[in-house]
Amino acid sequence: MGRVRLAYQTKFGLLFISPAALYFAAFWIFPVALAAVTSLTDWRIGSPPHFVGLLNYVNLATDPQFHHAMLASLTITGLALVCIVGLALGLAVALHDPSLRLSSLFKLAVFIPVVTDWVATGLVWQLIFLPNQGVLAGLLDGLGLARWSALRWTASRQLAPLAVAIFIVWKMTGFYAMVYLAGLKSVPREVQEAARVDGASPAQTLWRISMPLLRPITVFVVVSGFVGVIGLFEPIFMLTGGGPADATRALPIFLYENFFQFQRAGYASAAGMLFLLMSLGFALVAARQLQYSFYD
Amino acid sequence: MEVETRTLGSAWGSAVAAALVIAALTIALAGGWAQAAPAQTLEIWVHEFPPLQDALSKKWIPEFQTAHPGVRVKVTAIPFAGVVAYDAKLLSALSSGAGPDLWDMGDWHYKVFMDNKFLAPLDPTIFGYASARDMIDAYVPGTTSIFERDGNLYGLFSEYNTLALFYNLDMFNAAGVAPLSADTPVSWRMIADMAKKLTKHDSAGKLTQIGYRFGFFANFRSPQWYAQDFYALMRQYGQPDLTVDGKPAVTTKPVTDAFKLMYDFTWSDKVYDPSFPANWFADLPQGRVAMLLAGTWFVPAMIPHNPNVHFGVAPHPVVDPGNRSTYHNVEWSWGWSINANKPQAAQRLAQQFLAAILGKKGETDQAVWWFKTVGYTHPKKAFYQSTGYQQELVKNPWLRTWENAFTTYKIDYVTHNFDEVGQALIRAIDRVVYDQTQPADTARLLQAELQRLLGTK
User: Fold this and answer.
1) 3-state DSSP helix/strand/coil percent for chain A, to nearest 5?
2) Which residues of A touch B207 (CB under 8 A)?
3) In Å, how far is B96's CA from the nearest CA of chain A?
4) Rg of chain A, C-alpha, whole Å
5) Does residue A163 belong to any structural domain of this protein?
6) Other CB atoms within 10 A of residue A103 CB
7) Is A2 within a domain?
8) CA-CA distance, B180 to B163, in Å (whole number)?
9) Domain count, chain A
């Protein structure tokens, strides 16, 4: 077999992508590979690691704290994702309305939370959720709903996951609203006009014409939203620190505590690998769905 | 094709030219920066406590920089608990081989940090001592044990403290509650009864002030304070630790009684609400919290913003004032430590800074200043004998109550707070104060968790 000669353009292209490829290899592939190896050891930070095979995975399978963290992650992610998809679509439809005045201003307002900092806005949301004296409590008082103002948003096991989800929804919806808006703009105008000529109402046009055409966008929003939300550490750490009584001790907090606070690097790495597999599994299932949507 | 090649070639030339310009600018800027930069920078991390930051930025750092031209001291304050935990940030930085040159941290970290070789041993000669033994002997016996290993010292006191009960005298007067004795502790039951009179609601039924506050609350989830409050109670009820002979023992009466006291304060007496206000140093002077436990730093921290506050100080409450065996209190330390991963020159500079702010052998001015200004105690024998300290006791009679605690109570460090066992304890306390879980059920759940964690199940 002769030597493969790369075209000049190919070489030039490789040169250009090499920084990104190196970055990806150094900061994504290498850490994942390292975590995979570490997950098979009993490494505690500061002590030499020993190979333990799949013991960490076996222990995780019977660790109620890990199960709880999975459940907390899925609860927060589920709550947030449902709201994000619904709100993002609703906002996109509203912003897509050609009769909307000052639409640029509204787009800016919707997108601003996306570019703010999690930590800074987390401090603000702490004040918003403060019972009795918080911003939300004041608002509820003003609306004559004083009995709701004492709700312990971040200090009750029932409400804390919801509080975290609300913060995430506020912060992330704007991005997906813009994604939906771009999708709506790509829906052929003539198809919509034809539907209207045939007597379809705006709601029917949205539901029966635009939504099926937006299916790939929806799958993208769900997949990237799931992967993005389930890995979030900052909003939980900022609002509740994982409490109260572990109500919001989701997987990122579980990993962080086990690795840094308890120095159980091997165990935390195994949990991280399972976390990665779970996210990959969800993404693969959704990607298949996306493929079907193109061809069905 | 030729055209395309030329275009690419031209683009390549432009890219190379641009890269050269950027490189030249970078080198020029870096050179300028290097010229402007001081010879050495000392990076310090501290937990967020305004009087501490003021002490460093307004007094000690300017003085040190004046005495050491060419040295720049950079201090970063990081919130201690609640959300962005100082401890976690410190541990993660040091675990990766980075972190500051010098930092302060709680006593509970020393074992782990020494095990992991994050800490450099102190050089006694920099502090004017002949040896580490000489240095250890300068402190009240036993107090430096937390910093010691293999005959070396790996930390030096930022503060050493114990708890006393602080209360708002104006709130007491308004509720018709008599001030507490400064000499004799009262029972927890009496505290609860007084606190009921000091807990108020507005006309809409909203809580406006609480009678007593434990040291942990919704936005201050510090394992240190969860554990300090619990350990004092558990020991007063008769059990020194969560384990006996290495095995979990939390379904015992002392542990259940400690949970029950927290349960009663929160749910039966309704004098404590973990989600009620959230400002450690403002709630008491501003009339939202009537009583709380704190160390000597509480006064310097609350006075600047509340100069007219009328407060009293009483001994730590106990289970039974008539039974001296229930007189238990906790102690804790914060220490300054040096990063072992830094070059020798940086380690030396950090120790010189420490010697400047804490004092060398025989010097007490620094310790007196810290005590007067920040409420931090350095348990040097010479400090307790100093005129400055004696003058402070005369000026602030309440300090006698705090000082007497060291002779009145059996005082010990807390065993578990930031570790996995400590985290399980926090979960248990959360179940009591947030979920209203019954003390016996809480104890059973904790027992099961500890058995699993300690491998005894």
Assistant:
1) 75, 0, 25
2) 132, 150
3) 10
4) 24
5) yes
6) 15
7) no
8) 16
9) 1
Q: What is the torsion angle, in degrees rounded to the nearest 10, for the CA atoms of residue B2, residue B7, residue B10 and residue B16?
A: -110
Q: A44, A45, A66: which to substitute to probe chain B, counting the most B Cβ within 10 Å? A: A45
Instruction: Tell me the CATH number at A90.
Output: 1.10.3720.10
Q: At what angle do helices B253-263 and B439-453 cross, to 10 degrees?
A: 130
pTM of the complete model = 0.80
Domain membership of residue A262 (yes or no) is: yes
Residue A47 belongs to some domain of the structure: no
Query: Can you give the pLDDT of all 457 residues of chain B as single tens digits?
Result: 333 334 334 444 555 455 555 555 554 454 444 445 557 999 999 988 888 999 999 999 999 999 999 999 999 998 765 434 677 778 778 877 889 999 999 998 898 889 888 999 999 999 999 999 999 999 999 889 999 999 999 999 999 999 999 999 999 999 999 999 999 999 999 999 999 999 999 887 788 899 999 988 777 778 889 999 999 999 999 999 999 998 999 999 999 999 999 999 999 999 999 888 778 899 999 999 999 999 999 998 899 899 999 999 999 999 999 999 999 999 999 999 999 999 999 999 999 999 999 999 999 999 999 999 998 999 999 999 999 999 999 999 899 999 899 999 999 999 988 888 998 999 999 999 988 999 999 999 999 999 988 875 5
Is the ipTM reported for this complex over the cut 0.90?
Answer: no
Domain of residue A264: give its range: 59-295
Both structure tokens of A118? 């999690």
Min Cα distance A168 → chain B (Å) is 16
* All structural domains of chain B: 40-159+333-394 (3.40.190.10), 164-330+412-453 (3.40.190.10)
Q: Are B221 and A241 a contacting pair at CB < 8 A?
A: yes
